[in-house]
Write a structure and sequence with these properties.
heterodimer; A: 116 residues; mainly beta; six-stranded mixed β-sheet; four-stranded antiparallel β-sheet; 0% helix; globular; B: 114 residues; seven-stranded mixed β-sheet; 49% strand
Chain lengths: 116, 114
């Protein structure tokens, strides 16, 4: 079974600084998808960024970028120029490709605090 | 505006009672999901439906039931067999249920036991 591990329960960053959230996963599949979701205090889940395993290029979305290391099964999220609105719980998630691939497996989350 | 509506926002259950959480979407999505979130835990899949009148169990389906009679609606019933129902419940949908599709989430229902 696939597992997703976020080893940092909590992280903090100063406003305008850069922070990296870690995520590792375990899978025997060669093709799959990885996601970072954000859950602010409103508790609404919001997609931050996604990566296809077959793409070597790391995904970027404005201030958010990932470092995808397929061999190491690592998928970290970098937030640049952190803003107060980035404060939230961040979840890493995995979904395999092909077949009955409906299931999105989530990590336990990292709570990010942004200090003014 | 298109989106997913969950109701109620807060729900209380008495011992031995079944309660139903509502989830409605107007995004014309085929796939719908129910997730449970406990403090300090990630989201765990309860049930999934990719098409009307069909659904599959997720990782923690025991004590729950669902129906998918309409494309727009995917209600979740928490039965008396679910001994630890206190949690935050999130409904989600996506276009087809495959690939790198983005999941659209509702705002959730907090269920507590009286």
């Amino acid at each position: 079974a696939q597992t997703v591990t976020q080893s940092q329960p909590e992280m903090s960053v100063q406003e305008a600084e850069t922070v990296t959230l870690s995520c590792t996963y375990d899978t025997s599949e060669s093709d799959y998808y990885l996601f970072w979701y954000k859950q602010p205090p409103s508790r609404q889940m919001i997609l931050v960024i996604r990566q296809e395993a077959y793409k070597q290029q790391n995904a970027t979305e404005n201030r958010f970028s990932v470092n995808f290391q397929k061999a190491a099964k690592s998928f970290s999220l970098k937030i640049s120029d952190s803003q107060l609105g980035d404060a939230a719980m961040y979840f890493c998630a995995y979904r395999r490709s092909g077949g009955s691939n409906y299931k999105l497996t989530f990590g336990k989350g990292t709570l990010l605090t942004v200090n003014p | 505006d298109g989106g997913i509506t969950q109701s109620p926002k807060y729900l209380f259950r008495k011992e031995g009672q079944n309660v139903t959480l509502s989830c409605e979407q107007n995004l014309n999505h085929d796939a719908m999901y129910w997730y449970r979130q406990d403090p300090g835990q990630g989201l765990r899949l309860i049930y999934y439906s990719q098409i009307v009148n069909d659904f599959q169990k997720g990782d923690i389906a025991e004590g729950y039931s669902v129906s998918r009679e309409k494309k727009e609606s995917f209600p979740l019933t928490v039965t008396s067999a679910q001994k630890n129902p206190t949690a935050f419940y999130l409904c989600a949908s996506s276009i087809t249920g495959f690939g790198n599709e983005k999941l659209f989430f509702g705002s959730g229902t907090q269920l507590s036991v009286l």
